[in-house]
Every structure is written in structure tokens, then in C-alpha cells.
Amino acid sequence: MRFRVERDEFTEAVAWTARSLPSRTATAAQQQVLTGLLLDASGPGLVVAAFDYEVAAQAKLEATISEEGRALAPGKMLAEITKQLPAAPVEVWTEGNGLVIACGNARFTLRTMPVEEYPALPPLPPITGYIEGGAFGAAVSQVAVAAGRDDTLPVLTGVRLEIEGDVLTLAATDRYRLAVRTLKWRPESPDAAGVALIPARTLLDTARSLSGGSVEVAIALGTGPSGEALAGFAGNGRQTTTRLVDGQFPPYRKLLPDSCPLIAAVEKAPLLEAVKRVALVAPKTAPVKLAFTEDHLELEAGSNGGEAQASETLPSTYSGPDLAVAFNPAYLQDALNAIDSDQVEFGFASADDAEVAAKKPAILTGKGAGEGEAPDYRYLLMPIQLNG
Amino acid sequence: MTSEAGPMGPMGSDILHVDMDAFFAAVTLLGRPELRGQPVIIGGGPRGVVLSATYEARAYGVHSAMPLARARRLCPSALVLPPERDRYQEVSRRVMAVLRDVTPLVAPLSVDEAFLDVSGARRLFGTPVEIARMIRARVLADEGLTCSVGVAPTMFVAKIASTRCKPDGLLVVPPGDVLAFLHPLPTSALWGVGRATEAALDRLGLRTIGDIADCPLLTLRHALGDAAAQHLHALAHGRDERAVDPDTTEVSVSAEHTLSVDVAEADQLARELLRLSGQVARRLRARGRATRTVGIKIRFADFTTVTRARTLREPTDVSQEIYRTALALFREAGIAGRAVRLVGVRAANLTEAGATGHQLAIDERPAAWSQLDRATDAAGHRFGAGAVAPASLLPRQPPPPRAPKPHNP
């Protein structure tokens, strides 16, 4: 194998795929080959790949191949080396059991790993449709924030992706909040349909890496070589396939009402700043209290008898009963960061019973959806019930 | 042994761990000066264990908690004296008073050791190093006793430091040196690593604290359970978020019960966990405390013991919540079918109750368990503990009637 590539392209491709390498110590001896990065110059172009049996990442880039072939190089080492290469074209070739990387006056020789033992990478399933990378990345970020991180509830560590014709619906929940985003896309067939539960972290990583420029992202739902359910994402020469999360995502649609009887509207940016400030005195999971009165919102955290206490008042558009509701400040900040609008609306479950409204989920949305039109992003936030 | 930083002392190493040297033995020797320089063991009591020993006796391998018989074999020349608990208490009170002169933030761990947070005492008394020197000088001048002091940015590092500089030492670990200090140490130096945990770590090939720091959390979890893995991993990276809190001298509430006969039946053990969880929760509520870490202890018929613990996402004083966690830990421990001799439930990581509230979940109705507990407590106050109890804790068979009931036609 022998090829010549542009330094920056090579470095980027190696760095991107290297993120999918399994961590060294977690890998059993028989899976040592998975710590390698595959350099596949069977042409056309060069493919750099990493695979940990869950996620396969492949980056394709232009290369001048003078001798076709494949090699498996120690992944972490290769990534470290490419990061530090001088600004000059890179020439890579195999020499016996070694891989030589020459760039400018620098020259490295790495011992290769047995490439014939490397598992076959799952092919991308047939493409289900396309979406603009920036929009997809933003939508995934809005939703993945609500996904669970507790490995004892694996179903909740996934983002549910549902396809219904030209509408994509993404949803995630950790039981304490639920984020749902709908957006348009271009399906291959008008009656495309499907559901996949995708590991949130992988999806977020993938969507972000495909969100630059005007990348067209292909989404592919299907099955892998051994019949396992797979999702694939491709664009800009990058391709990720991942196994899906097993299990049944909670039925969430019934939790989202068509409309809320009581709504408070607040300027988003000042509210986010105020939450950050008052939350400074709330230790860990302690609540921030939101007290809505006619046209005002008072935020409060900490306790009078405790170490510290903070409060701040903001204007709001509200006309309902005096309502005090408590939220986890981190969850509230996540919502405000995710909502793409100058204003945020809190939808409550009851217009006349403040106690009911403070115990039921609040629906946070941005402003701007037309009359009778459901907002494309909704963040359901469960309150904290205060003792006594 | 004394190793110290420069005269200004390091910024950020504000925690002191003060540990009296061979406390019981040293106090006893104050009244028996002729025994100085000789191996002396303080011990006795019903279980016959070493409570304390002079450093001369320790040189023979004697250490506290060792059976007296064994200590005698190791060091036949040692003089064994009975403990003088009242004097230990008295001296301890005076030493703690010296510490409280420096700062109110003193958290005694036992009669002979305490943590101090001296971050607020700099203006009055100087750097932590200067304070440590002053404490050592005052304890020596007032009581004729030596102590060892560890100075570090966190409680557990300060404790390790004091252990490493014993006896009559002062060891300062500046914030930038914490990892370099910790990582070469054996795993057993960490707080919470006993013989069983050490063996489990050893099976993973982890022998130093640095090894733990480099080990993926997932691997640790499989070997030790969630709570212990998180805990050790954080410590190995020098992280310890606990603050010196003079109020948290009570670190845990636990209840355990030795069964009258060994039990293997899961349902019966679950009922025992329910009863113990109720006891622990009731005690928490009576003290106005809530727990974030629930643990269980299971001792089998062959006296081997397993413990498991889990940290909750928010503190609780609700019986049902503690029971649910205890039961989950029991099921996950994979010990079904083994004959059990003793069952225990422990609530640790205590906080003030009512400080945080309860985060509702999408698949949960506002819980009534908490109200049920308050009602049960109130009934207990009026009619005696156990007046109201979960139905599954009622005797399975109705007790035999004392006299045949008159039969009404």
C-alpha cells in the first residue's frame, strides 16, 4: 500500500474516526485489532475507519494511490502523530510489518496490526432520505440534551427518530424532562416510515460533525449483515453506522397536549441569565422557584435559614392566578439554551388551580408558531415538588 | 518526620486532619511515666482486642483491632493494660477545645481525630501550615501528647497525609502535588478500601491509587458496584466534595438484624429489608435528616458478608424509597438462594431533610408515600412504634387464640 494525501484532510479524517476507537483498557485481548485505525487504499480514494462493534466510523478522502492495499495502524498513536505533522503533503506506505508516514522532513515508522483479522465493517443500509446538515445538527442538539445518561435505563439513553413521510420527529427523555422536535426532510419515497432508537451520544457526535457548511446528510435505517437493526448517517465523505438501542421508548405523545390552558411568556435571554445567577446558591439538585404574578416573574433559590439565598424579578406576560412552581435549574437552563426564539412560553396544565399547575408538567416552547399550529420544538419539564 | 512547604504555605490546602498518636496508650502512659519507651498494649474487654499500642509495641506488628492473643504472641514482652475510658474522653474534650479555638469548623471523627477547615482562620492565625504547627505545639505543651497533622486541599488527602507522617509529624500536600502524592500509594490507603475491596481491586490488577485513576469507570463498576466505583474513582482523581461540616458527626443511620434461623427464601428476606428500611427511615425522620446513599449488608450462613450501596439522585427520608433501593441492591447482588444469617440496611451521606424537594418524573404521580410515613410516625407517637406497619410485615398466620372464642349463633 502506498498513497499521498493532503496533510489537513488526512489529519481531520484520522482525528474524526479516532473518536470512535474503543478505549484501550476497556478492550479485551481478542479485540485488540479494534484499537487500530484501518487505512483502506483499495481505491478510489482513501478510507480511514474505526469500529467498536457498536459504532463504525468511516471517512473518505482524496488520495493519490500508487499502490493499492490496506493496513491497520495503532489508532491512538496514528491520531497523535497526524495532529503534529508539519504543513506538507503526507506520503504513507507499508514496508514489511511497518507503516511509514513521511511528511516534510519528518518520518515515522509504526508497527502495523494484522489487517486480515479486522472485522468487516457494516455497510450503510439503503438510504431513507436526506436532510440539510446544519438543520439536522441543531435539531439533534435540541433533543439529545434531554436523553438519560443512566446506563441502568438503557432505553432512555437513546434518541427516538421517527420518520413519517416528509416529517422527522426526534424525541428523548430522562423521565424528568422530554424534548421533542419535528422537522421537514426529503424522504426517498413519499410514504417513507420508520422508527429507530439511536444512542444519544453517538447521534449527537455524528450530527455535529455533519453540520458544517452546506452538507447534505443521508439517513439510512435498515439492518446489518447479522440482522441487527442499524442506523447510518452519511455526508461530506463521512459515514457512521450505529447499532440501535434495544427496547420500547415510553409512549410520550399523550404527555404533550395540543394546547395549554395557562401560558406565561418571558424574554428568553434575560431569563437564562437570571436562572444562572440565582442557581449559584442552589446546591446540586436543589430547585429554583418561579413565582408568576400579574406581569411579573420572580425567581428564587436557596433557603432563608440555609447558607445563601438569591432572588431576581423579571417582567413577564402573564395573567392567571399567582403561581409558584419549582424546577431543577440545570434542566431549566437546558430548555432555555435549546429553545430557538427570543421569547419562551411556559404552558401550564390548569388556568384556575395554581396547585395543580405546579405539580403537572410544564411545556416550554418558543414564540412564533402560528395560530393552531403546534410549535416544532417542545420541552416538557417536570416540576420539583417542595416538601411541607 | 517533618516535611513542610515554604513559610507562606500553599494556597488552597486548607483542610487539616489532626490525629493523636497512639492516643489511648499515650494517655495511659502520662500516668505511668516509668513505662515510656516500652511496648505497651491497651486492650481487654469482652472480645479481647487491641484498642491501642505504643509505637514500641507496633514495631512488633501489633496494631489496633487485632485479637489480644495474637498481639501477645507477636510481642510477648508487652505489658497489657486495661483502657481508662473516662480519662480518654476528658483529654479528648480538651484537645477538641484547642482545635475549636482555631475555627468552629471542626468535625471530630472519633475521640482522637478530627478534621478542620482553616480557610477562614488565615487572618487570625496564619497559613494552614502555621496553624498546624501551632496546634501540635499547644497539644504537646498542654497535654504532653503528640499528634500528627496532614494538610491538604481535601479531607481524604489530609487524612492520608496524617497517616503517612505518623508519629509526631506534619505533612503538607499542596493542591498541585495531590495526584503525585496519591498515585504511587497502595489502594488500601484510600478511605473505604478494606480488605475485600482491596482484593477485588487486586483481581483487576489495580495495586496503586494511580491504577484506579487510570481504570475505566465501567470496569470498576462491574467489580465494586456503582456507588463504590464512583467514590473510589473520584478519590483516585483527588476529588472529594465533602466539606468539613461540624454538624455531620453522624455520618450514617443503620439497622441490622440477625435472623433467628438462616433464611434463603427471597420473599422473607425482602420483608426483612422492608422492616429495616422502615426503621432506618423512621430514625432519619426523627432526626430531620435525609439520606442520599442507601446500602445493604448481607451476611451468609458461612459468615462471608457482602455490602452494596447506591447513591440516589436526591436525598430521601421515605421508607418506601429506601426499601425500593435496598431491594434493588439485594436483587442485583445475585445472591438468590443462599442461606442468609444477617440482613442490614444503611443510610449514609446524610443531609438536612426538606432542603431539596422531590423531582417529579413523567411516569409518576405525586407520591403519597411521604404522607403515609408522616401518618405512620404520628400513629407511632400516640400508640407506640409498630402501631401501623406495612401489611406484608404482619404475621403470616394469625396467632393461635388463647381461649376458644365463644361462638355466636
From TrEMBL, chain A:
Cited InterPro entries: DNA_clamp_sf, DNA_polIII_beta, DNA_polIII_beta_C, DNA_polIII_beta_cen, DNA_polIII_beta_N
Keywords of the record: Cytoplasm, DNA replication, DNA-binding, DNA-directed DNA polymerase, Nucleotidyltransferase, Transferase
Function, in words: Confers DNA tethering and processivity to DNA polymerases and other proteins. Acts as a clamp, forming a ring around DNA (a reaction catalyzed by the clamp-loading complex) which diffuses in an ATP-independent manner freely and bidirectionally along dsDNA. Initially characterized for its ability to contact the catalytic subunit of DNA polymerase III (Pol III), a complex, multichain enzyme responsible for most of the replicative synthesis in bacteria; Pol III exhibits 3'-5' exonuclease proofreading activity.
Residue ranges occupied by any DNA polymerase III beta sliding clamp central domain in the UniProt entry: 135-250
Family indicated by similarity: Belongs to the beta sliding clamp family.
Swiss-Prot/TrEMBL GO biological process terms: DNA strand elongation involved in DNA replication
Quaternary state and interactors: Forms a ring-shaped head-to-tail homodimer around DNA.
Domain DNA polymerase III beta sliding clamp N-terminal positions: 1-122
Keyword Nucleotidyltransferase: yes
Species of origin: Pseudofrankia asymbiotica
Subcellular location: Cytoplasm
A Pfam family assignment: DNA_pol3_beta_3
GO cellular component: cytoplasm; DNA polymerase III complex
Lineage: Bacteria, Bacillati, Actinomycetota, Actinomycetes, Frankiales
Protein name (Swiss-Prot/TrEMBL): Beta sliding clamp
Gene3D superfamilies per record: DNA Polymerase III, subunit A, domain 2
Protein biosynthesis among keywords: no
One GO MF term: DNA binding
TrEMBL record, chain B:
InterPro entries given in the database record: DNA/RNA_pol_sf, DNA_pol_Y-fam_lit_finger_sf, DNA_pol_Y-fam_little_finger, DNA_polymerase-Y, DNApol_IV, IMS_HHH_1, Rev_trsase/Diguanyl_cyclase, UmuC
Reaction(s) catalysed (UniProt annotation): DNA(n) + a 2'-deoxyribonucleoside 5'-triphosphate = DNA(n+1) + diphosphate
GO cellular component: cytosol
The protein's role, per its UniProt record: Poorly processive, error-prone DNA polymerase involved in untargeted mutagenesis. Copies undamaged DNA at stalled replication forks, which arise in vivo from mismatched or misaligned primer ends. These misaligned primers can be extended by PolIV. Exhibits no 3'-5' exonuclease (proofreading) activity. May be involved in translesional synthesis, in conjunction with the beta clamp from PolIII.
Sequence ranges assigned to domain UmuC in this UniProt record: 15-194
CDD domains for the chain: PolY_Pol_IV_kappa
Pfam families, A to Z: IMS, IMS_C, IMS_HHH_1
Family named by the database record: Belongs to the DNA polymerase type-Y family.
Ranges where the record places region Disordered: 386-409
Cell location: Cytoplasm
Lineage: Bacteria, Bacillati, Actinomycetota, Actinomycetes, Frankiales
Cofactor note: Binds 2 magnesium ions per subunit.
Main location: cytoplasm
GO biological process: DNA repair; DNA-templated DNA replication; error-prone translesion synthesis; SOS response
Binding-site positions, Mg(2+): D19, D112
Gene Ontology MF terms in the entry: damaged DNA binding; DNA-directed DNA polymerase activity; magnesium ion binding
Cofactor or coenzyme needed: Mg(2+)
Protein name according to UniProt: DNA polymerase IV
Organism for this UniProt entry: Pseudofrankia asymbiotica
Assembly behavior: Monomer.
Residue numbers marked as site, Substrate discrimination: F24
Alphabetized SUPFAM superfamilies for the sequence: DNA/RNA polymerases, Lesion bypass DNA polymerase (Y-family), little finger domain
